[in-house]
Each structure stands twice: as C-alpha cells, then as structure tokens.
User: What shape does this take?
Amino acid sequence: MQTYITERDGLILVVAADGGLNRGTAQQLIEEISKHVESGATQVVVDCAKLDILSSMGLGALLQIHNKLKKHGAQVRLCGLRSLMVQAILISRLDKIFEVYPDVNAAKISFRPLS
Assistant: This one.
C-alpha cells in the first residue's frame, strides 16, 4: 500500500490509501497520519477510493488511528469505501465510530461548523 498526502488545507489533512490496508501496511498509515497530527492537523480524511483490500488488521489500524487522533483532539473521516469495505465497517460496528462519506469533498464539508 502506498499512502500519500493529497492535500493539507489548514487543519484538514487528506490522506489517500492506495492498494491494500492489511498487516503489512497498517503501521505505515498510522505513522503517516500521526506525524501530521503532531504538527497541527486536527481534521483527517482517509480517502479509500483506491483501496483494494481492507483486512481485519486494516480495520484495527483505522480504529487505532481514531483513538490516537481523539487523544489529540483531532477527528477522522473515511470516504470512498467500496461496497465490501462498507459491509466490513458495518459488520464490525465501526460505523458507530467513523463517519463515512462518498467522496473527499463531502468528508471535508462535514468538518464545517453548523451555522
């Protein structure tokens, strides 16, 4: 899996996950996001549109990212999940923890305060 920062707009960080999120790649995603949160990002969007595999270790990594970000007062949103990945999120009940959006723009908009 490759992760790359596609955008850093003020406090919002968009991280694209490409390939598979599993045992071999989970730590890479955690480290990539953690260093940006430590440098001030408080709103993170993980774009999963190019993600082909999401294993139970990958789900665990997302949960670990959520917990780490929460300690720093940051929030994480997921977007671009494919149907099988959405089912995995629902079955594991992670939909109670993560807000899931169809695309990056919808996820970014969700961070706007309600007026």
Q: What stands out?
A: Helices lie at 26-38, 56-71, 83-91, 104-109. The chain has one domain: 2-109. The chain has a mean pLDDT of 87.
